[in-house]
Structures are given as structure tokens and as C-alpha cells.
Amino acid sequence: xxxxxxxxxxxxxxxxxxxxxxxxxxxxxxxxxxxxxxxxxxxxxxxxxxxxxxxxxxxxxxxxxxxxxxxxxxxxxxxxxxxxxxxxxxxxxxxxxxxxxxxxxxxxxxxxxxxxxxxxxxxxxxxxxxxxxxxxxxxxxxxxxxxxxxxxxxxxxxxxxxxxxxxxxxxxxxxxxxxxxxxxxxxxxxxxxxxxxxxxxxxxxxxxxxxxxxxxxxxxxxxxxxxxxxxxxxxxxxxxxxxxxxxxxxxxxxxxxxxxxxxxxxxxxxxxxxxxxxxxxxxxxxxxxxxxxxxxxxxxxxxxxxxxxxxxxxxxxxxxxxxxxxxxxxxxxxxxxxxxxxxxxxxxxxxxxxxxxxxxxxxxxxxxxxxxxxxxxxxxxxxxxxxxxxxxxxxxxxxxxxxxxxxxxxxxxxxxxxxxxxxxxxxxxxxxxxxxxxxxxxxxxxxxxxxxxxxxxxxxxxxxxxxxxxxxxxxxxxxxxxxxxxxxxxxxxxxxxxxxxxxxxxxxxxxxxxxxxxxxxxxxxxxxxxxxxxxxxxxxxxxxxxxxxxxxxxxxxxxxxxxxxxxxxxxxxxxxxxxxxxxxxxxxxxxxxxxxxxxxxxxxxxxxxxxxxxxxxxxxxxxxxxxxxxxxxxxxxxxxxxxxxxxxxxxxxxxxxxxxxxxxxxxxxxxxxxxxxxxxxxxxxxxxxxxxxxxxxxxxxxxxxxxxxxxxxxxxxxxxxxxxxxxxxxxxxxxxxxxxxxxxxxxxxxxxxxx
Length: 755
Hints:
84% helix
């Protein structure tokens, strides 16, 4: 590797060792979890229904997308072969064919790692939930908390370990040419995250909304009542949505920030007189520090001094990791980089993560005014409940985007007087700093569905009152941790997208320079000029895309939830179900959610991939930059609004179920359930799915930018390709709006039964 000294080579091997240490820690925690008691045969029977449903769904999903992945492997290799390779690849001695194979192979590796994080992490969460319920019954709060959090930490450490392992390995193979291959690695992880988020989100909310409306509002049943046919599908959905989906989501943010950090590090090297390799080593060293700090911090989450406060324990672990990371960054920045600015940039990322935590907590936690205000509004009906939640969600997105703006401003101030590329590098380092605590964040998120499932198992299995209270307390904290990590995931997605946007500018300029385009006409010089009508058109299209995505996903949830309500109502009418003498057909409800989720996967992925390509070829590179800017702004505002409004509605309902304003079965409770069911598809389906969507579009733009620059003239071949892509996009929208055949059959069956 050209320019690498002995210290850098040794450090890379040490970083690789840290990646394996993270994976070994995950294995150690898995052994701990599996050694715990699984409870009574009744509890295990419920658990097996949840486990088999979750695994059946993921198997079906992987079968659905397998051919699509294979097609993209071929297309990614071709994306290299039809353009010129980067100067860094030539400097490192790689041929065009080697880079093509490297990018395609890295794509497959990223997709495999992302799927593995989701699949293994979800299964370990499934192993943990029944053991948490058993621990609450037999050993009390401390043991239940420890198992719940450490089961979730397994997913966090898989995310850390595999992300660092993949990025470091590719870097060690390709050296300065690593970004060429890492684009494939990031794209593979991002695409799988999109599939996991879309499919898991539709699955879980179809079940949850259907179970709440038919069970709670209409029949007056408790949460997770075993007579509700949708209860198992709901518990399965928590795992495929929040465990598998969130893990894959943050994993791809983790990858993408490495990609953008290395691309921008190379850009800094190009203008740095010393051509210091340190600019591209620093991101990997920061990542390694984050893995070590997460290992130490997550192990601190347990009961201390008899205090039964799960949130305090989780916060202690989080802030322990944050302090260790800050100290580590300072040592690397001052002793290796000899530069205070890189330390300040990464510190800004950690501060952003903490502030996003606090902002999200303010708008979604039961102890703060927004949730209290929504709960109060339930006394006057569902309409005022919904209006109050909308208002809080709208406000929350303003403060979130202000925090992101301040973080970018911090990079501007830190590198004041330096060339602009240093500012872009500072933004990328903020993203890497923010995701330093990935292990903690994923552990916090996965803890939520583990506690939720344990609470559901406790309800269905009829555990003691004391155990149910422990599980309810853990579940209530899980609602807050899930909301917090959604805020972090969205903010990290936006910072990653901004970093990729900066990489798009630098990479496009590099291609233009290689083609002999004068400096005054290169993209880095002229920028993204929205005063140009063509660029403004790109901006408008980009701004519209998150709204189209959200519309299609919410419609999918609405259709499937309607069928779920019909199915639960039908089973309530069966003799013996409401009396508890006959077990509902849980498998039928699971099938409704599975079919609805699978239907949307390929069509929405097709839109995310093809739209930026079409914009690039029709409107050219500068308009494509406008498209990305519009998508980032619109996507961030919409995603935070949906996540926080949904979380606030959910927790407002929880406060009423705890006895406020008449408690369960009151009119206020019914209004709060309506608000929660409106918010559910926003916070768990449409909002989270915008994160990978933004990064898919940014990565696709990075990959096609050299092709767009090279083929500036609309030849017959390019025109035919664009027309085919437009036809594919029209097909995707039509498929998303069309009910699946099996769902149509179920609707007809229900209509015949009613008649």
C-alpha cells in the first residue's frame, strides 16, 4: 500500500483485532443469554410461535430479494467497466477488471453482513425475550434488566464488529483505492437495510394497528390478550421491525460514514502538501475506539444499589462509553494526527448524538410537557388527540434540524480559513463521531422489543402480578429507548447523506478533471446553483420523493391493517374464542402481515435506485446534486416529524393506561388508542424507512456520477435506457398501489361472510 508506514500497517491489524473483539464479545453475551432459564412450558409455547413467525418472515424476505441482489452484483461490476477507474486505483496498480470484481464482491459482502446483523440479532432478541419473562418471575428486576439489555447488546456488537471488519478488510486489500470498492460495500448494506425497514415496518404495524383497533377499541381487551388473533403477529412484528430493521439501518449508516470519510480523506490528501495517509487512517481508528468503549459501557448496564431504574442504568452505560470515546479521540488526534480540528469534529458528533437523545426524549418521554399535553387532549376526543400530536411532531423536527445545522456549522468554524474540502471532511468526521456509540444505540433499541415481547409473553402466560409489573416497567423504558434511537438513526442518516453529498461533489469533480473539463466548469467550482431552472427541477423532484415513499408505505399498512381488523373480528365471532376456550388461529394473522410486507419490497427499492439515475441522465450532474439536496432536507423533516409524533402518541396512551384521566377503557383511553394507531405506521414504518432510502439514493448517485459525466449527450442508447427505467418506475408505483392477490381473496371472503 503506497504511503503506508510500519505504524499504519500495525495499526490496521490492531483495528482488525478490535473488530474480532467486538464479535467475540457478542458471542460471550450470546452464551450468557442462552444459559438463562426459559420458563414454563406455556411460556415456551408462546415463544416458539413468535420465533417461528419471525424466522419464516425473514426467510421469505430473503427469497424474494435474492434474484434482485444477484442482478445488482452484475450491474455494479458493469458500472466500473463502462467508465474509467480512479487515479488512486491506478496508483495502487489495480486493473479495471479488479476494481469491478472488488466493487461487486464488496456489495455482496455488505448485503450479507447487513442481513446477518438483522437475522442473528433478531434471533438473539427472540432468545432473550422469554428468558427476560422467566427472570422477572423467578429472580426479579435486576436479572430481567440484565438479560434484556445484554440480549440487545449482541445485535449492537454485531453491528460494530461486522461494520469495522468489512471496512477495514476492504481498506487493507485496496489501500487508497478502497473507496471504489467500499461504494459497493455501503450500497449492499444500505439496500438490505431498506428491505428490512420497509418489510419489517409494514409487517409490524399491520399487526399492531389491527390488534389495537379490533382488540382494544372494539372488544375492550387488554394489550396482548391471548384471545386476540393478531397478538402473535404483533409480537413477531416487534422483532422483524425494530430488531432486524433497526440493526440493518444503523449498520448501513456505520458503513456509509466510513465510505464518505475515506473519500473525503483522499480529497484532503490531494491538496495537503504532506499527502499524509493519516487523513484516511483516522476514521478507522475512531471506529475501533468506539467498539472498545461500547464493550465497556454496555457491560455497566445492570442494577446498582437496589435502584430499580432501568433508564438510569442504560444512561450510565451510554455516558461511560461516551467519556471513554472522547478520551480516546483526544489521544489519537493529538498524539497521532497532531491536529485539534479532527478531535473537535468527532467531539461535535458525540455532542450531536447526546443532544438528539435529549431532544427526542423531550418530545416523546412521559415525564415532559409534549406527551402530557397530548394525554390531556384525549379528554376531548380522538380529533384533538391527533391534532395535538401533529403539532408536537411538527415542532420537534424543527429543533432536530437546527441541531444538525449547528453540527455542520461547527465544521465550518473548526476549519475556518481552510480549503472547503476540509469542512466537508469535518462533517464526515462528525458523522463518524456520532456513530461511535453504535453498540450502545443498537443495544438500547433492541432492548425495546425484547422487553415488549417479554411483557406480551407475561400477559399471555398469566405470570404473577409482581412479575407483570417488572415487565411493564421494563417495557415502558423500552418505548423511550426506541424513540431515542430512532432520533439518532435519523440524524445519523442525514449526516451520512450530507457526507455522501459532499463525496458526490468531490468525486464528480475528479471525473470531470480527468476528462479535461476546465476548472471553472467543474462541479466543485460552480456548486449546486438552484437559480438554474434545471437544477431547481432536480431539487423539487428530490424533495417530493420522501413524500411518495411515505404515501406508498402508509397505504400498504392501512390496507393490511384493515384486513387484520376483519380477521380478528371474524375470529371473535367463532364459538369459544372470546370465552378463552378456543385458541385463535394466530397463523392466519401472521400470514396477512407477511404477504403485505413482501409485496412492497422490490417496488420501493426500484424507485429508490432508478429515480436518481433518471434525473442524472435527463438533467445532468448539477441537477442530480439538486435532487440529493432536496431529498435530504425533505426526508429529514418528514422522518423526524413522523418518528416523534408517533412516539409521543404511543407514550400518551401509556400514561392513560397507567391510570391517568380514567385509565383503561375510559373515553380518554379510546381516543389515545386512535392516536397511537395513527402514529404507529408513521414512527415504525414510513419514518424509519426514509433513512436507508436517503442513503440508497446518495450511493446510487455516487456510483452513476462518472457515467452521467461521461455520457452527457442523449444518444439513442441512453434514451432507450431512460425510457425503460421510467417504465420500471411506473410499474413500481402501480405495484405498490395494487393489493396482493391473496389479500384480495381475503377481502372477498370477508365480504361473503358478512353478507
